[in-house]
């Protein structure tokens, strides 16, 4: 299977991640069939934006909004920040979380245009410990089919995605490395990192 360039893989991670979760549900409601169907439904929302023909800035805002509504932003933002998240005050972390959300929307939104005409077929879902792993095959123009897996949980009281794995690229690990490097450049200053994230992407 042909490997994808890093930028394409990262953009594809975001394409999937932008809309893979569903609206709030009771913690007991999520099951294998529901995990699969929610992925299919949310992908339709993502592709509606991709194929809408909107100007790029509007698309970026739309994808950020989808990320905010459907991703477990709290978990992803904390994971990306690492140990510093436990040391941050509530207000300081909230400002970082908001900046991180915008950063993700801009960073990956700029790469979405290459996914026009692509498709993702959901192939299965199964329980894994405390979450559900949903598998699919992704078809991009001019590239070999790829297996994509994402993880869905309702532990927070809402069914949301919290990680995606494609061609061995783990979204949580990738963002943790990038945010960690940015924080290191700021010598651990979270406020400075937050300011950087407001301009990055």
TrEMBL record:
It comes from the Bacteria. Pfam families: MlaC. InterPro entries: MlaC/ttg2D (IPR008869), TAT_signal (IPR006311), Tgt2/MlaC_sf (IPR042245). The lineage of its organism: Bacteria, Pseudomonadati, Pseudomonadota, Alphaproteobacteria, Rhodobacterales. It comes from Paracoccus denitrificans (strain Pd 1222). This is Toluene tolerance family protein.
């Amino acid at each position: 299977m042909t490997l994808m360039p890093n930028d394409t893989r990262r953009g594809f991670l975001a394409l999937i991640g932008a809309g893979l979760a569903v609206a709030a549900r009771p913690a007991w409601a999520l099951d294998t069939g529901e995990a699969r169907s929610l992925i299919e439904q949310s992908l339709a929302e993502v592709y509606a934006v991709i194929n809408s023909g909107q100007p790029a800035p509007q698309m970026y805002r739309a994808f950020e909004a989808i990320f905010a509504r459907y991703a477990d932003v709290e978990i992803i933002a904390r994971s990306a920040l690492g140990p510093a998240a436990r040391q941050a005050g509530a207000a300081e972390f909230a400002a970082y979380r908001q900046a991180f959300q915008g950063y993700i929307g801009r960073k990956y939104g700029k790469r979405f245009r290459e996914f026009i005409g692509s498709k993702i077929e959901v192939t299965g879902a199964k329980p894994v410990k405390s979450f559900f792993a949903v598998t699919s095959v992704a078809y991009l123009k001019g590239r070999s089919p790829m297996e994509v897996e994402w993880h869905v949980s309702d532990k927070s009281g809402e069914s949301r995605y919290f990680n995606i794995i494609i061609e061995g690229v783990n979204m949580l690990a990738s963002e943790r490395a990038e945010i960690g490097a940015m924080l290191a450049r700021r010598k651990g200053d979270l406020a400075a990192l937050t300011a950087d994230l407001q301009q990055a992407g």
